[in-house]
């Protein structure tokens, strides 16, 4: 995974707060696979930019600005997941590939993917046909 | 763009030979956006691994092994292009995004994308419906 971006941090902090009620430096570090010292530095930056508030003993909370970014990142993340699932990608591979997709696709392409997901959700017959097609193809390979 | 891989080199050399009849270090360097000295080093490696033959004055030629890899990279490249085009991504953005897709998607996901492209080509009505859907969505945004 490339160096976590501001968006990665905000998303992870948001998820930790939702899951456990709080986000500690050590949990953020372990879930992003980086050192606590890097997390501490980044949290200082995010706090200066008013994405979050850090109070000793109370821990981290996201500001409305930080939470709104975290939510839009999460929603993009979910659309990409649904997209790869629709294409027939196995669950174990989806998470790994999303990292790549999130970091390297342009906003325009992400919008096309969002439209695609919504289109397929509105036309479930399409997905049934695609699934059948893949099964037939697999058998003939 | 990340550091060019063996595959990137072979693809580019193959394309240059097809376009101009030959591939010179200087053309490879300029089309990959890197220094000639890096290209020379890489060509030495590729020659040791028997992907290509380098003869002074005659220039570079790909071995059957090298050419076969170059062709499969090119075919993957084309499938990804078609895929992004099907999704409605603008031409100017397709090339940029393919770099990301090629470097960060797993072989399994790439296979799903290939299946998707072939499915849609076999069912052109689907693409017509998706295009209409996107136009209606755009107008209502």
Detail the topology: elements first, then pairings.
2 copies of one chain form a homodimer.
Chain A: H1 6-20, H2 25-32, H3 36-48, E1 52-55, E2 59-62, H4 64-87, H5 91-104, H6 107-122, H7 124-140
Antiparallel strand pairs in A: 1-2
Helix pairs in contact in A: 1-2, 1-4, 2-3, 4-5, 4-6
How many distinct helices of chain A?
7
Q: Which two chains touch over the largest interface?
A: A-B, 31 and 31 residues
Order of helices and strands of chain A: HHHEEHHHH
Spatial arrangement of strands, main beta sheet of chain A: 1-2
CATH superfamily of the largest domain in chain A: Winged helix-like DNA-binding domain superfamily/Winged helix DNA-binding domain
CATH architecture of the largest domain in chain A: Orthogonal Bundle
Which oligomerization state do the chains in this entry correspond to?
homodimer
Strand count, sense and closure of the main sheet of chain A? 2 strands, antiparallel
Structural class assignment of chain A: mainly alpha
Task: Briefly say what this structure is.
The structure is a homodimer of 141-residue chains. Chain A is mainly alpha-helical.
Descriptive overview:
The structure is a homodimer of 141-residue chains. Chain A has 141 residues and is mainly alpha-helical. Chain A folds into 2 domains: 4-68, Arc Repressor Mutant, subunit A (Orthogonal Bundle); 77-140, Diphtheria Toxin Repressor, domain 2, CATH 1.10.60.10. Chain A has 7 helices and 2 strands. The first copy, chain A, has helices at residues 6-20, 25-32, 36-48, 64-87, 91-104, 107-122, 124-140; strands at residues 52-55, 59-62. In chain A, strands 1-2 form a two-stranded antiparallel sheet. In chain A, strand 1 and strand 2 (59-62) form a beta hairpin. In chain A, helix 2 packs across helix 3 (36-48) and helix 4 packs across helix 5 (91-104). The first copy, chain A, starts with 5 loop residues before the first helix and ends with a helix. The model of chain A has no long low-confidence stretch (mean pLDDT 88). At the A-B interface, helix 5, helix 6 and helix 7 of A face helix 5, helix 6 and helix 7 of B.
